[in-house]
Amino acid sequence: MSNLKYLTGFGNEFASEDPRCPGALPEGQNNPQVCPYGLYAEQLSGSAFTCSRQTNKRSWLYRILPSVCHKPFASMEQGYLTHNWDEVDPEPNQLRWMPFIVPKSSEKKVDFVMGLNTLCGAGDVRSRNGIAVHIYTCNISMTDKCFYNSDGDFLIVPQLGKLLITTEFGKMMVEPNEICVIQQGMCFKVDVFGETRGYILEVFGAHFELPDLGPIGANGLANPRDFLVPVACYEDYKAPSGYTLVNKYQGKLFAAQQGFSPFNVVAWHGNYTPYKYNLKNFMVINCVAFDHADPSIFTVVTAKSTRPGVAIADFVIFPPRWGVANHTFRPPYYHRNCMSEFMGLIKGHYEAKEQGFQPGGGSLHSIMTPHGPDADCFEKASTADLQPERVAEGTMAFMFESSFSMAVTKWGLETCNRLDKNYQKCWEPLKSHFNPNWKSSTK
Ligand SMILES: O=C(O)Cc1cc(O)ccc1O
Ligand SMILES: [Fe+2]
Questions:
Q1: 332 in ligand 1 pocket by Cβ < 6 Å?
Q2: Per CATH, the architecture of 70-262+273-279 is what?
Q3: Which of 25, 334, 351, 439 is exposed most, by the fewest CB atoms within 10 A?
């Protein structure tokens, strides 16, 4: 399945026809009286009709039956997926989680939807402004079952196991060190190939965009041509015992039955699509003289709030790169931030915490919660011989940075049972080096 084809570009006006039905896209209009091949035309709107051209998002899908052909929705069991931010008291401490446990399929069969566990979040799906961080852990594929999210966009970061994601727009294979975005309303199902784990950044009310480059110029960071969009691929399939359509609506899961596969789109065009991106393509910019640049230089995509320069959430990575800064403490600085910082690790280790922060785990440094390199990292970096050196080789840490003050869920604090109770001990050995008689010669 890795021979899948993709279109390239970020937010382009794409067009795609399943090669089995040439000419399936109507020419010169969106709504012919009768569509080619007897298809139904359906628009998926990802922005208000009236948004500026720059932000207007919609796609036209030409499908065997329209999405509306389903039985009524009824609420269903939703495991540890929640948007209740008041389950437990606020938790301002530095938090770190050991790798989240993936259930063994011999003990419990869990698919992608039932394996969604909400770790933290804030804001409101109804007023369309907020964020949730979910950890997915699953071990079986979704069969005759699909999912769409009425509440927001999913940015999915696989950490263990690849995902074959079938969408209305076509198929994407997404492996660890790649990410994908499934935007609000897009129907998809996930096939897995064993134990599977990853992170999801959900934003309510905004779509991800590429950050402006300002003085960097026309190129750099995540380049638009490296974003991959699936191609139309329909199935004309009647599920023997019905197809289950799962919908996340206002934070609750609902299920409806329908007789046929929703992946029945023969052709589509538009600028509102799912997409994927390989993090190895990120063009890294870093300091080449002295001091430590803020991690915003590593922003892959951003979901902007309405306040200029302030994101609902940024997706930031810490890719392999050269560290060359002279007379500089090179690791991340000690820090208190008016933003929330959730971090995850896809592979390797993170430079500020060589120990304890493990792939498949996470950390949360909430608004104004102090954090920074552990004692070991501080001592090493303060005495290091500052040669040019490779930083983060073979690793990939990332951060969801949000302007929201996030609540941690009961699952995050208790049920998952992965909180590292000793996290704060990593700073305990930090000692005072203060010398009131200090002269540069005594350094
Ligand atoms: O807290 C962290 O590790 C993330 C981070 C990295 C960095 O290089 C500078 C600031 C920052 O918050
Ligand atoms: Fe930080």
A1: yes
A2: Sandwich (2.60)
A3: 439
